[in-house]
Amino acid sequence: SNQQTLFISSGINAEYGNSQPPKQYGNEENMHKQKLVEDEFRKREEDLERRERQLREEQKRLEDARVYGDRVPNFPPIPAFFPCTPCVYHNIDFDIAPEHQLTVRRAFYHWQFTVFCYLFNFVVCFGMICALGTKAGSAFGLSLLYAGLFIPLSFLTWYRMLYNAVRLDSSMRYMLFFFMYGMQIFVSGIAALGFNSGGFAGWITAFKTMEENKALGVLGIIVSLAWCANCLIAVYLIMQIHKTYRTTGQSMEKASGEFAASAGSNRNVAQAVLRSL
Question: Which of 100, 126, 133, 223 has its CA 20 to 30 A from that of 261?
Fold first, then answer.
């Protein structure tokens, strides 16, 4: 009996004593799924960080381009088959702060209207020399000179000056703009008057021409009205821009400091060039 009991116990121990507990397949599967989720989350986090880094780099590049002017010229918009190419980069939406875009855009529209006035004035003076002969020759020649010279100069001396003043927050450029824009107002007033043989088909020339050719006289009156409108628009805009000048913290002292810094920089560049010769 004791031997039988010992035999049975030995048999049980031999069958079950060395056996391992059953594997927990459900727990391993859950751990594997959790690891996959963590890996996927880590990949998404790394991807978001990479995109955020790219956005910061792109923003910095655009800011540097806006400040330092590293842009491809796109104005005036000239077709690719022309032998000449655009001269300057012009993009109000990109270069100008949103709160000042309306002011700069109005100035740009005024410059376009000024171009129209010069060209329309030239057309009327051309009609005068065709209808009246050589006695209108000086008016025609001067109108051609004004159109060819003052159109690009008006863009460079006052519109582009305002554009860069707002873009770079420069008091010195604001001062130069006010001076050159004042000259534009003066020229518009002279053009509206239209002195004889002065190259502008203004009021005086229009009424005198009407005695010989009513059609040209009417066109001259239209040119006179255009120049009067040009002058009034310029007066309105210079008042609005002066308000912007005051509200952005510009001043004569700041302009003087910028001028001195610019003059010193140019002097240093000139001295460096002379030393290298």
Answer: 100
In this structure, what DSSP letter does residue 83 have?
Answer: S
Residue 30 to residues 23, 37, 40, Cα–Cα distance (Å): 14, 11, 15
pLDDT below 70 — which residues of the chain?
1-28, 60-70, 264-277
List, in order, residues 6 or more apart from 180 with CB less than 8 Å away.
157, 158, 161
Cβ atoms within 10 Å of 275's Cβ, excluding its own: 7
pLDDT (0 to 100) of residue 115: 97
126: nearest Cα among 115, 137, 114, 135:
137
Angle, nearest 10°, between helix axes 171-193 and 214-247? 160
Contact present, 104 and 241 (Cβ < 8 Å): no
Angle in degrees, CA 75, 80, 82, rounded to 5 = 90
What is the per-residue pLDDT for 54?
80
Rounded Cα distance between 196 and 209, Å, is 10
